[in-house]
Amino acid sequence: MSKCEQCIIKQFNSLKALTKDELVRISGCKTSRIIKKGEIIFDEGETLNGVFCVKEGICKLSKLSENGKDQIVKMVVKGQLLGQRSLISEEASNLQAIALNDMEVCFIPKSEIFADLQKNSKFSFEVLKDMAHDLRDSDDIIVNMAQKSVRQRLAETLVYIRDSFGTNPDGTLSVLLSREDYANIVGTATESAIRVLSQFKKEKLISTVGKYIKIEDLAGLKRVE
Amino acid sequence: MSKCEQCIIKQFNSLKALTKDELVRISGCKTSRIIKKGEIIFDEGETLNGVFCVKEGICKLSKLSENGKDQIVKMVVKGQLLGQRSLISEEASNLQAIALNDMEVCFIPKSEIFADLQKNSKFSFEVLKDMAHDLRDSDDIIVNMAQKSVRQRLAETLVYIRDSFGTNPDGTLSVLLSREDYANIVGTATESAIRVLSQFKKEKLISTVGKYIKIEDLAGLKRVE
DNA sequence: AATAAAACATGACAGATATCATATTTAATT
DNA sequence: AATTAAATATGATATCTGTCATGTTTTATT
């Protein structure tokens, strides 16, 4: 099994603040896991006994609303930590995590994380900064949800996915989402998401290559009202 | 000037994790301030050089959206800290804070907070828990915004305000908000908020005493669809 | 390859909400 | 007390979005 102290992934998250000794210790009790596309990593209401460090792949974090629809709240990609919020507040998870493609994650037990939060203030400050960042993102999402149209939100989502998760060599968005996923990010009906995407296509803002979406007119998408 | 180590307010926020010595030190460099209703505590884009500990009163945190409307993202009341997110991420504030009634706050300089975050892991863990809690709240708000009707959101807002900020002796909500404020919490047009509140009144879910709102049928409000 | 199931697409329509217009009431200012 | 400004209220209308129905395409399964 690969060792945390040599893993490059940690450079991208709070674990970079840990000392070599701490990493060695964590390495000794972490477990690696392969998760298939579509698989549930953890469910809403489940108690997390640690955090996941995402080595490969991407997943969606969603919450079931009372009307039976999933709302995607965040996406977590290679390099990031998963489950830290619930771990810290010591509550059951308020979100469900599902892999959007094949993933590789390392599971680090709660006891290790808590020990390091106690001892290493640099580490806890990194986690704090991470969380502060998430909180700012959430504020933006709230404002968008409240004040913008479905058309605007979907356009922004496409740009966001491009900026955050990148594109394939042919220019298509590297993250493959179903129309239902798009609807669940934007907070609209699946039919509405489909309709708006069709419109974007007609307006030459995007094109599709198989199931993949390609942004053809980035400036145009950003201008959508 | 009153002393932090004797102040009861700190019991309600992360400052309770500080040692007596740390509190004495903070006490020495904090500044107390009275803020009048309607006054701006800090503005969007402003750099915060510390946090505010709210000794009395309540304020709203809002963000201006591109269409020129304010979205209220959170309310901060007596006992809570204000501005911690921006301080930690060392960015300009993404929110504006305005007093909803006369307030008394203590300002604690950034250097003090940072020093304690470095030294006192119990303190930084408390801040972490606070932030984790806020993040969970934000998730809930996102889901509500995306999936619920204006009517539902407004009903929930009234219940939330009752539960979080309490009532006056006559049963009216102790926090006095304009119809525009309600609209800015719910994320709707002021006219729509007014209309829905009028309906609630007709349906005997609420009543008004002057400018104050009284919840007459709590169960009914919770049942609103 | 055939069949079933899921995902995508589009039309028709109803309902929710925003916008604009205009009163009316309440609060602030002179 | 008179005047002005702000907040509240309500109607009319247009627009956006959700829902239901139906058809097509793509993917999975036998």
TrEMBL record, chains A, B:
InterPro entries: cNMP-bd_dom, cNMP-bd_dom_sf, Env_Response_Regulators, HTH_CRP, RmlC-like_jellyroll, WH-like_DNA-bd_sf, WH_DNA-bd_sf. Residues 148-219 form the HTH crp-type domain. It comes from the Bacteria. GO terms for molecular function: DNA binding; DNA-binding transcription factor activity. The keyword Transcription applies. Residues 14-110 form the Cyclic nucleotide-binding domain. It comes from Algibacter mikhailovii. The keyword Transcription applies. Keywords: DNA-binding, Transcription, Transcription regulation. This is Crp/Fnr family transcriptional regulator. GO terms for cellular component: cytosol. Pfam families: cNMP_binding, HTH_Crp_2.
